[in-house]
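Why predict the complex rather than its parts? Because the way molecules touch one another can change local conformation, and only a joint prediction can capture that. The input here totals 702 residues.
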Amino acid sequence: MKLRSSLGPLAALALLGALAAGCSSGGGHAEIVIGEYGSLTGSDATFGQSTKMGVELALTELGQNQGGKIGGLPVRIVSEDDQGKPEEAANAVQKLLNQDQVVAVIGEVASSRSLAAAPICQQAGVPMVSPSSTNPKVTEVGDDIFRMCFIDPFQGTVMARFARTNLGLKKVAILKDIKSDYSVGLAQYFTDAFTKGGGTIVAEQAYTAGDQEFSAQLTAIKAHHPDAIFIPGYYTEVGLIGRKARELGIDVPLLGGDGWESEQLLAIGGDALNGSYYSNHFAVDNPDPRLQGFLARFKAKFGKEPDAIGGLAYDAANVIFGCMQKLAASDPAAFAGLSSTKAGTPERKAAEAKLRDLIAATSAYPGVTGVITLDSHRNATKPAVVLEIKGGKKVYNTTINP
Amino acid sequence: MSEFLQQLVNGVTWGSVYALIALGYTMVYGILRLINFAHGDIYMLGAFIGLYTSNWLRAGEAPSPAKAIAVLLTSMAACALIGMLIERLAYKPVRRSPRLSALITAIGVSLLLENGGALLFGADPKFFPQLIPSHNIALGMGVTLSNQQLIVLVVSVVLMTLLRLLVLHTRVGKAMQAVSHNHMAASLMGISVDRIITFTFMIGSALAAAAGVLVALQSPKIEPYMGIMPGLKAFVAAVLGGIGNIPGAVVGGLVMGVAEVLVTGYLSPTYRDAIAFVLLIVILLVRPAGIFGKAVTEKV
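Output of the joint prediction:
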């Protein structure tokens, strides 16, 4: 008894010592750690999976080109799953910042989740690059938040213009996800542009992500005899809504935004989505050699074709790598602050601020999703493409410039 | 008018699914006075077993009615077995303990099935193959019914009728009624109470599995947490109809389905989940025993 009681505290002390040693040895190994978070699981899981693959491909290529090092330091990416929930996105980013002490963060796709995580990065002064969140509020959080894609006021206009001019539609109904910042915002921008163009919104209905049953909303919409239904949601619900609409005898085209972009869209919706259109960041049948090269490399690594979400993540990772390289070349002393050994020091703060300025100055970067120039609001200005779903395939229809 | 009729058709189809789940709640409550919170998760397991069976039968690639029936029956049989195991392993050991223990056990089983499901099947949604190609049937007055909705309705009605025949006209059914009145008296009459309780769980679980497959048929997204909300709502439906009362569960389910669809169609989908619980509060205030329930005076 005596022995055990005296050994207990000793063992605890030894354990603490081991832990402390573990920490300091981790700090001794100099590297650059970049965080990535996304929905690897959950109802829009392909968003997070594509993002992760895009970032991984960029890292693999960094390994092939420069031995995986920037300025002599090896680069490591830490990925976190947020399960498709905003509160988990906030937790994931807290973990990346506090435990992994990352120097930059890549993510998210869904605007609601980017909005949950952005204030945390802003407060920590760590640059966050969202590859594909299109809601304008995301970068309005602060000057540490960037994005690689266009924003919804533009995307809404694109689809409104396409519906009004290219398809010649007059009456459109809207079915939006009322709990998603992305969906509510995009519906509003579409409505503004479409009514300004002389069209009318004949019905507006809503659902919430995770719903299983859409017949009530679609029946209400059907009574207004619209020429098309605009569904600015994410692919899972869009697929289910498409099927239900056809079952209820609604045969008009469905329109949507980049939230439709997933390999799962057609697996869920099947034939029901034929004749529908959505706006996207790229079309895989664009002959641009930069894009085609990326598609081939992605396919060689992962055995499947990437979606635009993966392309934007690849661009986001490369923009961050490029800015770090610039910093290493122009100001090696400041660059040293990005090393994991400098976590929590004033040098790290100074280096992060310099990295932030370099990202903000991104101009005419030749990305696979188009040329990326960040404006003063840290948004990229890029053309959007409209894809048509035809015979179970996504086919390029037109490009609409800003 | 045609819109309203269409909404009613939608509501009745959706409600018949709630009715199937509510039957399991009400049967178990009738016999054990236990609210089996794991019941919604049996519905989820039913959908997943249906998914794996149809993948195994390649029912998605070459759909046929025979395969669809096989999927439905396999799922019902497997869930009946799971229901039996849950009863034997989780509920039977606490049957003589206070009722609260059994209730907490039920919540535990529910969490186990949900998170076990997430571990086993993965947390991201799976998609049910189309077992039956869908087409529309025009009912006149602008109302359409898809063949899948029709199947849901027909299968539900057939299962509910079979259940009624079973309970009212077979020896087992009469034994179930006896057990629901009084365990002790039933066992004195030579009824094996344990066996009847297990049987009740099996029937209830099979009905939940059928509901899972039927829902997946029309709305193919299935995931390990899909049983939580329908389970809660079916429970409300059972209370609405008078918990412990079999026709009450059916009526409660239908009322719930129609109410949800009408609220979504004419007000806002944000009230969809609220309406179930508003109905619960109203019924508890106005008629605490439920629509068909008999008020019981308890001696204190």
